[in-house]
Amino acid sequence: MRRGLVIVALAMVCGTVLGLAQPPQPRPRNPIARLLTPHGHAAPPTAVPEPAESTSDAIFDATAMGSPAVLDKGWRVGITSNQDAAQPDFDDSTWKVRDAKDAIADVPDEDRPAAPPPPPGSVDPKQEPPDPDYNDRRGPGHKRPWVWFRMHIKLAPNHGPLALLVELPVSHSTNVNIGGAESLTPDIYANGKLIQAQGAHNDHPERYQSISRMYVLDVPSSQTNLVLVVRSIYVPVGWKTYTAFFANRTFHLGALADLNEQLELWTNHSLFERLPRLVISILLVVLGLFLLALYFTQKGHTEYLWLGLHELAQAPIAFFELAGSSARLDLIRYGSYTLQMVLISAYLYFEFLISLLDLRRRWENKRKRVIIPIMRYTAPVLAVVGPSLLVVDRSTVFVIIFVVSVIASIAWIIGWLLFSFITLIAATARRNFEAGLLLLPLVLEFVGVLEPVFSSNMADWTGRNYQSPLTMMAGPIPIHFATVADFIGLLSIVVIIFFRFLRIQRDRERASSELAAARNVQELLIPQEKLDTPGFEIDSVYNPAAEVGGDFYHVEPTAEGGLLVVIGDVAGKGLKAAMNVSMVMGALRRSAERSPSKILESLNRVLAGSDGITTCQAVWFAANGEVVMANAGHLPPYLNTQEVNLPGGLPLGVLPEVSYPEVRLYLHPGDRLLLMSDGVVEARQSSGELFGFDRVHNLSNQSAFYIADAAKSFGQEDDITVLAVRRMAAAVAA
């Protein structure tokens, strides 16, 4: 997986890609060297000593060599804007002869005026005089200088069809190059004729990643003299310096069939180089789909959703690399697609960390909570970088948009890096096992992303090939450190998912057992059979919600022909609510009180100091029709179809000493008192509409079953309890 600094690295790619769209202008020598040298002259090169010139005519004899032959000796190197240097009869006898080494010595620039002679006695006669400043050019036509590599080759008679293979190291073709010398596609001339490269997009190879290419030379079999000319843009210093031209190129001359076999072998090696990344991408797709499936089975865990999308966003990057590094996708599109997917995956990882570490809840009352909305509201700028890169060459407006979006994205990425590392380190310090597992691959990927950037440019800086010590070989397949970091990241996620699944499964089993225990307690406390209540008809319905709630009611006939009814709702869900209900019911059954206010005061003392509150309503029905009621924050009852005006009263358990006033009324034979829990009025449709008091009032003359069923069908969210007490006529009661 590519997180963290890969985003910054690819942002650098975007700028380089723009530079590759047009040939670069001449650049000055090292400005530090200019400051250290008087009179604006650069110090002479000392990194590579100038080899002795060949005493021969510098003709490469290929008559006795097999096919293919490596052209590594006798290159004549010159710097000039004279286009006649491509012709076979051009006089290059004064040019320096260089062998194809990792770094060659500087050669004179023919278009520059000679340096003025130093004052007598000011320079050691044994020391070579310094070169003039590269910015001090006055020669005509020097607006676009070229460096030329010419070789005179003697061919065997009747040599047959010839071809030239310019081979690049495999490692340089599998990553987009951010400025190495091999990123400049040279022009090839054979006996003065420009030769077009073979392969994909050979008409504009400069727009694509450099790859090994074949050049079929139009040299008749009877012709034994070949002047091979290679022309490249002259860059005196920096990543594209001409002195490192041969560091990452090997020129092979031979029969077309032989070179085709060698090119096919190079292609196979390139595929082996890419194979680990492709395997990682396939694993990312599998892991991403698994995480999405896990989210849909556990929708409360949004970290699975964000992480799954994050993995899926990273998966196409390796395939973009495959298309880009094989010159199937131009550099602009390659950079745009890759950069955009990386930026998207960075934002998805940000959301994943928020969900995984539950930062919204943890930071709710802290100042740093503003970090989350700031990062979210500024994230849309990330979606502008990729599309603006595709159209940046169409208008100055698009250039401005691209530059602004890149600057804003870099600022966002810096904040993202700080956020990711700091939150993971802080969570690890709190002994968060999952955060520690995520922090390790993030640190490794930090190193893994720097490795190819560092290695691919070391040859240009040091003048010699560089093999990273962090790269291992598994047969023909190189395993880079970034691949190891990716695999460790995948393994860490698998381990996190495994342990989270075990923990969630244990939590579910515990919750299931608690739910079963709560239902058992509730079934024991709620009357299951119809009680014998002389003089009164009881109609009751209890519909439990999906979660066990805290509804309860108690019906107790008395010896003098009266009836005590207590109904209430304990705050909370599950086993805790059921245990609070059992405490209330136990207190009711032990109490000999018949006064509603005294009953509520007694229950309040029992529940004082407990966690949560309880609404309750106590009603005493006398045999003669008198009714005494007291209320502790419960819904008012309905007498026939009229709501009874009751004082609200504090719920039970809020304060230790509370008095509850009583209200008295009279029930005539046939009158009905309707009691219910708040689960009726709080029933809610999917649109958010509540069942409400108006519907309760309209249905107050219906049976308890009808009212409860109407609320349940409307959208039950809590326990629904409906209890109706009707006073019977004296003859019926007898």
TrEMBL record:
<keyword id="KW-1133">Transmembrane helix</keyword>
<dbReference type="InterPro" id="IPR036457">
    <property type="entry name" value="PPM-type-like_dom_sf"/>
</dbReference>
<dbReference type="InterPro" id="IPR001932">
    <property type="entry name" value="PPM-type_phosphatase-like_dom"/>
</dbReference>
<protein>
    <submittedName>
        <fullName>SpoIIE family protein phosphatase</fullName>
    </submittedName>
</protein>
<dbReference type="GO" id="GO:0016791">
    <property type="term" value="F:phosphatase activity"/>
</dbReference>
<keyword id="KW-0812">Transmembrane</keyword>
<dbReference type="Pfam" id="PF07228">
    <property type="entry name" value="SpoIIE"/>
</dbReference>
<feature type="region of interest" description="Disordered">
    <location>
        <begin position="21"/>
        <end position="54"/>
    </location>
</feature>
<feature type="compositionally biased region" description="Basic and acidic residues">
    <location>
        <begin position="125"/>
        <end position="139"/>
    </location>
</feature>
<feature type="transmembrane region" description="Helical">
    <location>
        <begin position="398"/>
        <end position="425"/>
    </location>
</feature>
<feature type="transmembrane region" description="Helical">
    <location>
        <begin position="337"/>
        <end position="359"/>
    </location>
</feature>
<dbReference type="InterPro" id="IPR052016">
    <property type="entry name" value="Bact_Sigma-Reg"/>
</dbReference>
<feature type="domain" description="PPM-type phosphatase">
    <location>
        <begin position="533"/>
        <end position="727"/>
    </location>
</feature>
<feature type="transmembrane region" description="Helical">
    <location>
        <begin position="278"/>
        <end position="297"/>
    </location>
</feature>
<keyword id="KW-0378">Hydrolase</keyword>
<feature type="transmembrane region" description="Helical">
    <location>
        <begin position="437"/>
        <end position="459"/>
    </location>
</feature>
<feature type="transmembrane region" description="Helical">
    <location>
        <begin position="371"/>
        <end position="392"/>
    </location>
</feature>
<feature type="compositionally biased region" description="Low complexity">
    <location>
        <begin position="42"/>
        <end position="53"/>
    </location>
</feature>
<feature type="region of interest" description="Disordered">
    <location>
        <begin position="105"/>
        <end position="139"/>
    </location>
</feature>
<feature type="transmembrane region" description="Helical">
    <location>
        <begin position="479"/>
        <end position="502"/>
    </location>
</feature>
<keyword id="KW-0472">Membrane</keyword>
